Amino acid sequence: MAERALTIWFTGLSGAGKSTLARGLSRHLTKLGCGHEVLDGDELRRTLCQDLGFSKEDRDENVRRIAQAANELNRKGITAIVAAISPYREARARAREQCDQFVEVFVDCELEALIQRDPKGLYRRALAGEIQKFSGVSDPYEAPEKPDIYINSATQTEEESLALLIAKLVL
Q1: CATH number of the domain enclosing 77
Q2: Total domain count for the chain?
Q3: Tell me: the pLDDT tens digits for 103-151?
Q4: Which of 9, 107, 126, 136 could serve as a FRET partner for 118 with CA atoms 20 to 30 Å apart?
């Protein structure tokens, strides 16, 4: 792992495995004694970003706030591990500009697999029209064109994904 503080930004659709991989990476960094914090999009929606909705403007502001928090952690020498859908490329590009050492990790998973997994029942509700502006169903998700790290959680196990991630982060 690099000596400098990074922002490791997991992006992908709901249920793809962003938070799972962020927690796995956190466990690994803890074993190495590397200072880090996990910024989970779901948790931040309940706290720092509780005033935001799901319009494009609010989603962009959500990403901006998370990137600002990550940058503040980085300035203190703490690696920020971000797990947030962050559906728009432009907002992720601005987040990259805000953070000095930014690693974009795209956790990809086909929509059909996500619908089958659906541990929170969100896809079922979104497909039934009960949830509006749901990324990948009734609202766009713009996949990264050139992520720094690509993980396909439909074809890779959590262990395989973590091993790939850790190997790519070692300089």
Answers
A1: 3.40.50.300
A2: 1
A3: 999 999 999 999 998 888 999 999 998 998 899 888 899 999 999 999 9
A4: 9
